[in-house]
Amino acid sequence: MKHFYNIVKKEVAELLTKQLLISLAFMVLFFVSMGKITNDMEEESTRTGTGKGARTRISILNLDSNPYLQNILSIADEQGIQIDFVKSKDVKSAIKEARGQNSNILLVIPEGFSGKVEKMEKVEIEIYSIIKGLSMQEAISSGRVESIIETLNNSITTSFIQKEMPDKKPEDILNPIHTKNFVILKEKTIPESAGVLSALVMSQSTTIPLIIMMVIMYTGMLVMTSMGMEKENKTLETLLTLPVKREYIIAGKMVGSAVVGFLMTIIYMFGFKYYMSPFTSSPEMSTSLKDLGLFITPFGYVLLGVSLFLAIIAALSMCIILGVFAQDTKSAMTMTYPIMLLVFIPFLLSMFKDIETLPLSLKILVYAIPFTYPMLASKSLIFHDYHMVLFGIAYMVVFVVIAMWIAVRLFNTDKVLTAKFSVKWKK
Amino acid sequence: MENAIEVTSLIKSYGKIEALKGISFNVRAGEIFGLIGPNGAGKTTSLRIISTLLQVTSGSVKVFDCDVSKKAPEIRKIISYLPEEAGAYKNLSGKGYLEFIAGFYSDKTMLKKGFEIAQLGDRIKDKVSTYSKGMTRKLLVARALMMSPKLAILDEPTSGLDVINSKGIREIIKDFVKSGTTILLSSHNMLEVEFLCDRIALINNGMIVETGTPQELKIKHNVNNIEEVFLKAIV
User: Fold this and answer.
1) Which domains, from first to last, does chain A contain?
2) Chain B touched by A147 (CB under 8 Å)
3) Which of A156, A266, A373, B164 is deepest in the core (most CB within 10 A)?
4) pTM to 2 decimals?
């Protein structure tokens, strides 16, 4: 074991370079800065009345003299819209004034508006969106115009119903059909819509596939780099003539890469989580997932851990095999692409598609990829469905044994020094 | 005298290319044996097979009576191989590199010996990436000899070293033989071969064309130095 630790120590020292640490620090700095910019944007939009939960601010050029409009606008005010009237009587000056009021929207209420509304006649109002740039913030601001009109329409209709039918509730007339959703999950009846439940489960289970993808990508890339560096720096021959078992060399490389890979993933996820925090929000639900029995049990976490561990070992052993064919760091990097592809396929599918709905041939292909199983495991374990997870573990054990056997075989022959990957084109 | 290496009818093929065409030679324990020949003659292939790096296509190679095809792990415990184009781990210091190698052996005194052979002074604490070619070579020679192997296989040991450093390394090699180490080396430097080697084998096109002491070969070809022997026997 002393030899094994010696190799692990060397691998970590070789891979954990100052350059790598600096680039990781920059990456975290980038994510934190981006997160801060997004947060600031959110705060700014809240302040200026364009963001989530903010009071929308609009300017109104009122050419109508009937006080009925005031009633409508008071309802709008209750619904979170801040109204600023402009004193100007023409559109050009009103736009200038709206700008001064820091308003992005100007509504022009035409003369005779109230009269037409009272008679329930169609009426047209002009909307001027004052664009200051083409940023996302502007797009959000402009997008709220539609919701403002909808709110105004509702206000007018509500006001009309209240006036004409004071004994009726406006919402009962506007939406006479009400729904109450239930989801049947195994033996339980849950008073929620399937969409909300699915969104909540998704929000809980997407982080794990992302972590799995990052860990496999980083560790795979590092073990390939390690193999490439051994060949590029001409150190492999010396290493192979030392009195150390080839199995220890392979295991040492894998563990060393995994240690650095995990470290990189933790740092990356820390930065990424900070960056994503303004965007991530779970849908609200009347009952918690735990109360519904939708949670991963301690045994589930053990299975998830085993599944992830096996997936990493599978990736590393595949990378070691490919690394044997690398001539230098550059070619080793190129050889990581097939592994990346094998990681991305189940990752994307687990996010956007139900694998069971794929055609049989594609389904076989996806289930042949060992990384599919830990990606699916998090969702299966929430529903306490252990069959697929256990099958995945058994499959990965077989996969790892075969891959490791090939890797050890390659290291015990002169292929480790002489193997080259080249494509010959016949003339 | 016991043979350190016995090579018998050794053939090594890379696909259709036959790099070694049935070579045979012996290296006696405690001697310095030189394998010399032009580029592509098969020197490095021979050294790599003896070092357990490459597999034998046919024939046999024994190191201190251990067959390289059957007892490679045992052989690795008693040999040390210095490849011609070897490098060291660039992110480690010279000291760290020697410590890493020493970690595979039980002899605790070898590090001190390594530092002495490397003669890098305080630079031994610097990263290998900051070393010149010559400094790296001295570190690698130190790595190859510090564990006092029973057999040291040195491919161009003074490659990249200046005259002064080359002379120093040659003297270290000579001293090592006195302590019982057998040396098999290859070199393009005929002066080095003549100075160091007790016996030499000339290899050309995958075949051994001459074997003997430098003196025997000079007399046989009626020339004054090994360079002329090389030219007469090979060219």
Assistant:
1) 2-24+207-418 (no CATH), 55-174 (3.40.1710.10)
2) no
3) A373
4) 0.76
